[in-house]
Write a structure and sequence with these properties.
alpha/beta, Aldehyde Dehydrogenase, Chain A, domain 2, Aldehyde Dehydrogenase, Chain A, domain 1, 16 helices, binds nicotinamide-adenine-dinucleotide, 482 residues, 38% helix
Length: 482
C-alpha cells in the first residue's frame, strides 16, 4: 500500500469486533494520479446481515448497558486518539479523496471535534416532565433507536462519519457503517481507533463495498431501526423507498445549489474570500458548496471582475502539494463536470484557474471556472454540478433576489451580504434553506450547528445537539398514582 501512514489492511471488514477479510476486493484509486494504490474489501449482503446481527447483540450486551457518561468517556478517548493521529488521517484522506492536505487536516480536526462535542453531550440529553391530570406524573425518555445504518459519501468521509456515527453512538445506538467505495480509508482508520479507545465489540461495524450491493442490503435490512444517508438525490430516493418497506425513519442529507446573495451595500473586501472559497473548497465537491452568487445589478461587474481576479490565481494539482484545489474524485466525476461546463453559453467564462502543467496525466483535474452569463433558469444555475464552478447572476431588487435564491428544487444553505440589519432579518426568514449565514458563509458551519435541508436537499438534521434527537426515540411515560 503506497500510503505510508496506513497501519492496517483496508481489505478487512469489521463485524462484531473482529476484523476479517472481505469475500472480494475493489481497487483503491489515488485520484491525484489515477493509479491503483491498494485493495478495499467488497462486503456483501451476507456481511451486512452479520453486521446488523452483531450490532443488535451489542445493544443487548455491554454497549446497551453502558451509562451515558461511560459512552461519553469512550467518545472523548476516541477524539483524543484522532487528534494525536490527525496528520496520519490527513495524509490518508488527501491520498484517498484527492483533497489538498490542509483541507484534509481540517477534516481530521473536525472528526476529533465531533467526538469531543458528542462526548460532552452524551449525558446531557434529558426528557421533560409534563403537567397532566390530577394524580398523574408524566415524563419523557429519550431512548436509542437500536441499530442505526450509516451510508456515507466520498467527499467528506471524516466529517460525515464524525457527525453521524458520533451522534448515534452518543445516544447508545449500535452502528453499521457503509462508507463510499471511492473513499473508505479514514472510516476504517476511525473504526480501528474506536476499538483501541474501548468501544465494545459490535457497537460500530464497518462493511465497505459497493452501493448497490452492501449499501442496498443495509438500507433494506429489517434489523435496522434508523438510516442516515448523505449523497445524491437519486440514491436518497432509493434509500427512502427501501426504508419505507419496514417503516424505518430516514435522515437524508442530499445536495444543494446554495446561493450567496450580495447587496450593493455589502462589505466586499470581507465577502470576496467567502464568495470564492465556498465554491472551490474540496474542488466544489461539497453538498453545501455555494455555486450561485447573486449580485445586485449596480455591483455586478465589480463582483465578477474581483472574483475573476481570484479565480485566475487559483492553482490545481496533486493533493499532497496542498495547492488551492486537488483533483476530482474520479474519471466519472470529471466527465460529469466537464459535461456541465461544455453547456456554458458563448463568452460566459469569466475566468479559469490553472492546472499545474506537470500534474500527473492520470489525475482527474478540472480548472475552477467562474461563469457570468447563464441566467437563473440555465442548467448551470439549476443543477448541482459538484465540481469547481460558480455562476454569478445579477438581480434588480430584494424581491427578485429572493425569487432567484429560492428558485431551485434545493434548499441547503444560503447567505446574505448586506449591512442593512432589517434586510438581514427579512431574508433570514424568507430564504428557503436549512442554514442561513449573515455576512459569512459556513458551508455547513461548525460541528455545533444543526445542518440539513429542505426540498431536494433532504430532511432531518445532523450536527449539533439536534442530531441527538434524530438518533433517539421519545417515549412518554404516564404514571397514575392517585
Ligand atoms: P451516491 O449517492 O451514489 O453515493 C453515496 C453513498 O451511497 C455511497 O456510500 C454509495 O456506495 C451509496 N449507494 C450508492 N447506491 C446505493 C444504493 N442503491 N443503495 C444504498 N446505497 C447506495 O453519490 P456519489 O455517486 O458518491 O455522488 C454523486 C452525486 O451525489 C454527486 O454528484 C452529488 O450531487 C451528490 N453528493 C452529495 C453529497 C452530499 O454531501 N450531500 C455527497 C456526495 C455526493
Amino acid at each position: 500500500m503506497p500510503i505510508d501512514r496506513l497501519w492496517f489492511d483496508p481489505s478487512e471488514l469489521l463485524i462484531g469486533g473482529v476484523w476479517r477479510p472481505a469475500p472480494a476486493a475493489l481497487p483503491i484509486e489515488d485520484p491525484s494520479t489515477g493509479s491503483e494504490i491498494g485493495l478495499l474489501g467488497r462486503g456483501t449482503a451476507a456481511d451486512i446481515d452479520e453486521a446488523v446481527a452483531a450490532a443488535g447483540a451489542a445493544r443487548q450486551g455491554d454497549w446497551g448497558r453502558m451509562t451515558a457518561a461511560e459512552r461519553g468517556r469512550i467518545l472523548a478517548r476516541i477524539g483524543q486518539m484522532v487528534l494525536a493521529r490527525a496528520d496520519d488521517f490527513a495524509v490518508i484522506e488527501a491520498t484517498d479523496v484527492g483533497k489538498p492536505l490542509t483541507q484534509a487536516k481540517a477534516d481530521a480536526l473536525a472528526l476529533a471535534r465531533y467526538m469531543e462535542f458528542y462526548a460532552g453531550a452524551a449525558d446531557k440529553v434529558m426528557g421533560d416532565t409534563i403537567p397532566y391530570l390530577d394524580g398523574y406524573t408524566v415524563y419523557t425518555l429519550r431512548e436509542p433507536h437500536g441499530v442505526t445504518g450509516h451510508i456515507v459519501p466520498w467527499n467528506y468521509p471524516m466529517q460525515i462519519v464524525g457527525r453521524s456515527v458520533g451522534a448515534a453512538l452518543a445516544m447508545g445506538n449500535a452502528c453499521v457503517l457503509k462508507p463510499a467505495e471511492e473513499a473508505s480509508l479514514t472510516a476504517l482508520a476511525f473504526a480501528r481507533i474506536a476499538a483501541e479507545a474501548g468501544l465494545p465489540p459490535g457497537a460500530l461495524n464497518v462493511v465497505t463495498g459497493l452501493g448497490e450491493e452492501a449499501g442496498a442490503a443495509l438500507s433494506s435490512h429489517p434489523g435496522v431501526h434508523h438510516l442516515s444517508f448523505t449523497g445524491s438525490v437519486a440514491v436518497g430516493r432509493l434509500i427512502q423507498t427501501s426504508a419505507a418497506a419496514h417503516i424505518v425513519p430516514v435522515t437524508l442529507e442530499l445536495g444543494g445549489k446554495s446561493p450567496q446573495v450580495v447587496f450593493a451595500d455589502a462589505d466586499l473586501d470581507t465577502a470576496l474570500p467567502f464568495l470564492v472559497n465556498a465554491g472551490i473548497q474540496n474542488a466544489g465537491q461539497t453538498c453545501s458548496a455555494s455555486s450561485r452568487i447573486l449580485v445586485e445589478q449596480s455591483r455586478y461587474d465589480d463582483v465578477v471582475s474581483r472574483m475573476a481576479e481570484r479565480y485566475a490565481a487559483l492553482r490545481v494539482g496533486p493533493a499532497l502539494l496542498d495547492l488551492d484545489l486537488g483533483p476530482l474524485i474520479s474519471a466519472r466525476q470529471k466527465e460529469i463536470v466537464e459535461g456541465f461546463l461544455a453547456m456554458a453559453p458563448e463568452g460566459a467564462v469569466a475566468a479559469r484557474g490553472t492546472v499545474l502543467a506537470d500534474a500527473p496525466k492520470g489525475g482527474h483535474y478540472v480548472a475552477p471556472t467562474l461563469l457570468a452569463g447563464p441566467g437563473p433558469d440555465h442548467p448551470l444555475a439549476q443543477d448541482e454540478i459538484f465540481g469547481p464552478a460558480q455562476v454569478v447572476i445579477p438581480f434588480e431588487d430584494e424581491e427578485e433576489a429572493v425569487a432567484i435564491a429560492n428558485g431551485t428544487p434545493y434548499g441547503l444553505v444560503a447567505s446574505v451580504w448586506t449591512e442593512n440589519g432589517a434586510r438581514q432579518m427579512r431574508l433570514a426568514k424568507r430564504l428557503r434553506a436549512g442554514q442561513v449565514f449573515l455576512n459569512n458563509y459556513g458551508a455547513g458551519g461548525g460541528v455545533e450547528l444543526p445542518f440539513g435541508g429542505v426540498g431536494k436537499s433532504g430532511h432531518g438534521r445532523e450536527k449539533g445537539f439536534e442530531a441527538l434527537y434524530g438518533f433517539s426515540v421519545l417515549k412518554t411515560v404516564a404514571a397514575r398514582h392517585g
